[in-house]
Amino acid sequence: MAEPRALRQGGGSAQAHRPRPPGSGRGRPGHPGAPRRSACGFRGRGRSHGRRGPAPSAGAREAGAAGVGRVAAGQVLRHRRLGGEVSEGGRPRPVRPRSPRPARPGGESGNGAATPSPAAVPSPAAPPDRVASPGPAAGAPSQVLEVRFKGLRSDFFAFSGAPPLTEREYVVVEADRGQDIGWVKRAASARDLACEGGCDSVGERAVPPPSRRVIRRAAPADVLRLLQLRDQELEVRRRTRELAVKHRLRMKVSEAEWQWDRNKLTVYFTAEKRVDFRALVRDMARSFRTRIDLRQIGVRDEARRLGGLGRCRRELCCRSWLTSIEPVTLQLAKDQGLSLNPSQISGACGRLMNCLRYEHAVYTQAKKRFPPVGRTIRTANGRENVKSWDLFEETVSLEAGDGETRTIPLAQLKDERRAARRAELDRS
Predict the structure, then answer these.
(1) pLDDT (tens digit, 9 = 90+) per residue, 37-57?
(2) How many helices (H) and strands (E) does the chain have?
(3) Residue 126: inside a domain, yes or no?
(4) Which of 323, 345, 365 delimits the end of a domain?
(5) Which of 6, 92, 311, 316 could lock 50 by a disulfide, CB 3.0 to 4.6 Å apart?
(6) Lowest mean pLDDT among 43-47, 81-85, 182-186, 318-322
(7) Is residue 49 a contact partner of residue 38, using CB atoms and an 8 Å limit?
């Protein structure tokens, strides 16, 4: 039996076919119905050159009679896959070139098309340093506003609408997983925006870049809904206290705050120690049907949120105008010569009053002009010990070696010490 051979298109070499195992799966090499590569290099489902296959069907015989064989059908399919067209007689039309290939030295491109003229070739883009700088970004905020919420909570928001918003105007802003409502405290100036937190701004502090935006102005119905939520917060505090007693938690519920869209409920409380309130949060979520946020705050923050009157019979500084609470230590009272009785220097929260910091810098600078208490200095009467001094009267109390005490102005003391130094230099 002669060895089967297959002729490749464009070449005259012959290659022997390996016998295919019988019974192999459909679609695998060796199956009688699997696609085979014909002598022309195209895949077909029929007879291959050099190997006897199954008898052609009646349709194939009719196609052969019409002059179109299976090899030609495979060429048409491949021609269509390449993007070509087929004429009515079944013959493939020339394939249209998809994209021009690089030009050859002969002046023609790889697909036989003429090389386009330089005028038709678009010029390359300009270098980055020559490209004109873009204008202001689309949608840039026209205003950066500080919006105040309940409990002196504030944040900065961007607003791009018109007309511009004014102070004390209620707005609806983006919030945590929803929307909230507040009032405009101030609009950031051009200097505030130029600082970006790196210099002292006009007003309270430098303006950070806003991460959220103002959605719209608040309608009267929106403000009315906000007032209704404030009335409901009293019931929230009462119910939270009942649940805290039920779970035997040693905590004091200070304040509750609804988000305007009721997607979040924040409850503030104080406690001496850390409180495990996970079970309480589950009961609150089941009772109020919203997301619960329990926050533990200090007594100073509680007084700031609730407000009140201080020892001076005025509104608490932390509530009225202080933007941040700085630490206050007992050394501040000592430097100013104040009483160290806690009942006299403590505020409504039970901590040291914030006003102890107001004049501390003045006392620190003024103390440099006075001699330290307890030091022995040379004056016109000899060596004397500094007993005390009065900052407001600018007087100094001195005690001599025999126990005699005198009080003289600070200017006179400086003159006596200067004269005593000159006399000592003259004697030496």
Answers:
(1) 444 444 444 444 444 555 555
(2) 11, 16
(3) no
(4) 365
(5) 6
(6) 43-47
(7) yes
Which stretches does DSSP call E strand in 168-316?
A: 170-175, 178-187, 212-217, 252-258, 264-270, 291-296
Ramachandran bin of 403, using left for φ above 0, alpha for ψ from -120 to 50, beta for the remaining angles: left
Residue given tokens 């509530």 in the structure block: 319
* Chain segment 23-39, per-residue pLDDT in tens: 444 445 444 544 454 44
What tokens appear for 322 in the block? 């202080």
Cα–Cα dist 339/358, whole Å: 16
**How does DSSP assign 345-397, residue by residue?**
HB-TTSSBPGGGGTTHHHHHHHHTTSPPTT-EEEETTEEEEEEEEETTTTEEE
Question: Tokens 């994209």 label which residue?
Answer: 99
* Residue 189 within any structural domain of the chain: yes
Nearest to 74 by CA among 53, 102, 48: 48
Single out the residue of 297, 303, 323, 329 nearest to residue 315, CA to CA.
303
CATH number assigned to the domain comprising residue 390:
2.30.30.140
Residue 149, token pair as written in the block: 């919420």
Beta strands per DSSP E along 42-189: 43-44, 143-148, 154-159, 170-175, 178-187
- Asked whether residue 36 is assigned to any structural domain, the reply reads no
172 vs 179: CA distance, rounded Å:
7
- Domain edge (last residue) among 218, 233, 248: 218
> 240 with 275, same domain?
yes
Look at residue 99 and tell me if it is in a domain. no
Clarify whether residues 248 and 292 are in a common domain: yes
Q: HSE of 230 in the Cβ direction (CA atoms, 13 Å)?
A: 11
Asked whether 403 and 397 are in contact (CB, 8 A), the reply is no
Task: Provide the residue range defining the domain that includes 180.
Answer: 143-218
Residue 390 makes CB contacts below 8 A (sequence gap 6+) with 396
